[in-house]
Specification:
mainly alpha; globular; 13 strands; three-stranded antiparallel β-sheet
Length: about 400
Amino acid sequence: MLQDLIGHSNDNIARRGFDRIEALDPKLASARERLPELCDLAVNGLRRMALPDLHFPHTMRGVGSRNGSGVIPEGDNLRYTINVAQGLAWTSETEQRSVLGGKTAVDLALSCIQRAAKSGEPGAIALAAWAAAETAGVFAGDLFRLLETSLSHDKSIQTVSCAWALTAALAARHLGPTAEVQRLASRILLLHAQSDSGLFRHFTPASAAGFARGHVGCFADQVYPIQALARLGYMDGDRVALRAAEACAARIVALQGEAGQWWWHYDTRDGSVVEGYPVYSVHQHAMAPMALLDLYEAGGVDHRAALAKGLAWLDRRPENDEPMVSPEDGVIWRKIGRAEPPKLVRSVAAVTTALSTGWHLPGLDMAFPPVKVDRECRPYEFGWMLYAWRSRGVVHALRNQPRRY
């Protein structure tokens, strides 16, 4: 079980000795110093977010325009609850119980299995199957049967859900039969979802996204396949999978902004940026690190300097000087976007680049500057932060699990 791997019996070891922060190059001193503070904020923030009966909200919404004004929970989100379990599993048992009202990350992961099955949503099903296996050591057979059906019969498949299905299959294959889910998901990612630029499309087939979006892949469409294919490459010695992960990683790193921004929408045809904003905090502190550190542990290229650059954006950025980190509210604000009608520039950029590769209407940056802070924070952001930076050894541990099915 995961708890045995990270030594939950010793809180000090779980906090400081078995994480990826200590493994950072000493040259990245600022990141090494900042990350423990941010991980502590994540635990404290999740403690405030927790709802009764092992649920977590869709978001924590800021109630004022200044840090310290407070936040309120809105909604209920199964995916985000699963992500919390995945992140908290890498903290001490004391921290887990303090967040979950006396329960543990294992309890939380197991509570999500039936909820996911009833949801019928492939992304939630894949995440729950992954968390059950990796966090609780449980094979959620019903969930894998649902994934196999979805991957076999759905007319269109989201890249993110497909990547999660592959990661789940790899995490659980020592517990039960996952070979068919692994085969289907890896085939879709390697043969149909990745373009010649190295970037991944949002849907398979791309036409499912429509004329204006068929060529677009978002940042999430890149990081989760990198993670899944890096793990496949490491576990099976699959050089094709590892090269596919490295090609995508190399492209998003090459496109990273001067201030460390991980951009939002890409043109998968030529590997350019369709629209950079909004820049999401979770991409900076969690999702890029999670994927690229998995790639590095799997024997891929070391992109840790780019991760440190991205992390620094949280505290120093050209867009504005409003604090993104609010310890008073227990949050990191969600994103910086344009002062615009909802999704206007992204929609325009998608259409113009669909008509002609690289065509962007001039003047949009001046007309709609990226200065607006979105004052909300979602539970998965902290779940993935803890997973990204505290899960040292998770990739290597997968190979040590004997494949029995």
